[in-house]
Each structure stands twice: as C-alpha cells, then as structure tokens.
Amino acid sequence: MQCASVSDYREWARWRLPKLAFDYLDKGAGDGDSLENNVHAFRRLQLRPRVLVDVTKVVTDIDLFGHRYSAPLIVGPTGLNGLYWPDADSILAKECAMQGLPFVLSTAATDLLEDVRKSVSDHPLWFQLYVHENRELTLSLIARAKNAGYSVLVLTVDVPVHGKRDHDIHNEFRLPLRPSWRLFDDILRHPRWAIQMLTHGTPQLVNIARSLGQQPNLLAHAGVLSRAMDKSLTWNSLDWLRDAWTGPIVLKGIQSEDDARRAQQCGFDGIVLSNHGGRQLSGVSPPIDGLEAVAAQIGDSMKVFVDGGVRRGEDIVKARALGASAVLTGRAPLYGLAANGKEGARDVLKLFLDELHIALQLVGCPSMNMLGREYLR
Ligand code: FNR
To answer: Which residues bind FMN (predicted)?
Structure first.
C-alpha cells in the first residue's frame, strides 16, 4: 500500500522497529497526555476558506536569517536518529537540502557534525545545543559547529533534567541497558532492523565522544548527556554564549509569554514555542495554544517558531495564520526514515509540501505572507 500520510508512515515504522526503539521515537512524557494534546490542538483549530481567489500560483517560500527556504517547515533536532537507520542525520540533512528546508542537527546526533556538513555542500544547516555541566565540552561543540559552517544555533532550554516517561519503565529502558529476555525477544522479532544494526554498527553519540576526546561508547555518553545537563543555567548566565557564537541564536523550549518577552529583551534572534514534543513534562499545554498571544506581543523583532503535533501541511497553514514564522517537525520525518530510509524521509517532506500547497489553494490564500487570523474560525 502506498503511504498517503504521516500517520501511514508511523504505522510502517511501528511495524519495522523493535518496540524499544519505536517507543523512544513515538511516545511522550508520563502517560503521553502532553503529546496527545499537542496533536489534538492542531486538529481542533479549524480553517476558514475564502473562495473565488486566484490561486493559480501559490508562494510558500520564506526568508529566515538571511536565507531563502522553500516553505516555513524546519526539520527539528532529534537525538539518536541512528537507532532507526544508518547515516540517519546525513540522510535527513540531504533530504532537507533537496527540498530547500532548514535542518537542525542535534547535540545527540549519531553522525559527526562535520560529516553532515560535508554531505550537503552549500545548503545552510542549524546546530542544536544542550548546555552541559562540562563547559569545555559545550564550548568545543559550539566551536566545531562554527568552524564547520553551521549558520544558526538553537539552544534547547527545556531539559535541565530528563522527563519521566512511563514507557521507558515498561520497556525496562534505562542506562546502562541490561540484557533481558524481553529485549532479546523484541530484537529477534525485528530481524531486518537487527541485521541492519549489526552490519552498520550500533548508533553512537559521536559528537559528544569527539568533543570529549574519547572513543564512542553509547551507554557511557548517553549517561553523560542525560545526567550532566547544566541545571544552574539562567537568563543571567548566558553571556558566554554570545561571545562563543556570533550568528543568530534561537531559544527552543519557551512555554510562557513572560519567557518569550525575556528572550526578546535579552536580544535573542528567535524562540521556539515548544514542550519538546510532549517528551519532558506531563500536563503541559500545547505550544500552538499559546502562539497567537506570544506572536502578537513579540511583533517582528524576533522570529517565533512553534512545534509539537505538526503532522500535516494544513498544520503549517494554521501556525502561520496564528503568527508563527515557521513550524518545526520532530517525529514525522523520523517515521518516514524509520520506515524506509531516505525514500521514506523524502516522501514525508514531500507530503508536507504537497499538502501545504493544496491547503493554501483551498483556503484561498495564494501566499504564505497573506495568512492571518481571518483564515481560522
Ligand atoms: C526530540 N526532540 C529533541 N529536541 C532537542 O532540542 N534536542 C534533541 O536532541 C531532541 N531529541 C528528540 C528525539 C526524539 C526521538 C523526538 C521525537 C524529539 C524534540 C524535537 O526537537 C521537537 O521539539 C518535537 O519532536 C516536536 O514535536 P513533534 O513534531 O515530534 O510532535
């Protein structure tokens, strides 16, 4: 059967991956309520089409930090992508370059940031940073991203500690990973995935390893990353970052109007309204619900991005109508990648772009820049 939507790719990914890996990709904090709310919040928003508008030509491209992209869709940072397919980060970066979309490489990427940069010659790439207690490790990551030519730094601020996820407990997914019959059985039921992993090697947090000057060791470095985030980071302790990175800086994980205003006052170039795809805290509201108020307050002085629950091209239209500069997507391209490698990732991005194009024609809005509140009920 040909996949017609992101949710079709989700089912394919569920079939192909061991439960442990699929749940890591798919599920959320607590029992998943924040994640569910993110998806439903987009569904609840209803479009209000206008008719008898000339939509022969539709313009979706936008400017972000001095570059022209084909649509307001950013493939957001996701860690451990090598768990789904070998060379996952390079594949995603290349597919984004082909479609003219920004790609954000995670600190927890499983491909070297320098290799990912080389794989897409002149397309702009963004780098996502987790601030680690070990400041030298953090500065080394920033310096490497800068030297490699990444253009935008995305500082994730919603992970002082890792959230509690019920499914990790059900799956006995804790570090160090202990061998168990359940794990063995899970892997044996997914022989193609297992053979692919055996042939290409298990994914590693190679960027952390390189910046620490150590040999890759997934279990050790996943532990380093999750246990030693800098929990003391505050608005007043970010000056060093400005000295280390001269390009645009976007704060990812803002969830309140006050923090959005604070980011603006501190001179950041953008924010991502985000609850980390509902992966951190149970019981938080969907970022899309807070977008309109934040965007109205911020105006044009800073980019306002939003993520969490974007599954269709129509969702991009809804977010733009509420004032977002662009949306980020996390899980959707991963479903495609996990299902069918680069073809799957490519198809998911194309689905988004096709659905966006059709949605704009059907709401009677020939240009992204003309979208406003009047296109929503
Ligand atoms: C993430 N996300 C994330 N964010 C980040 O800043 N750094 C990271 O390393 C990761 N890792 C990560 C792994 C996986 C498997 C997922 C699904 C997500 C969060 C991500 O960037 C984004 O905020 C959400 O995924 C957006 O929600 P949707 O699109 O997945 O609903």
So the answer is: 77-79, 106, 128, 130, 156, 252, 274, 307-311, 330-331
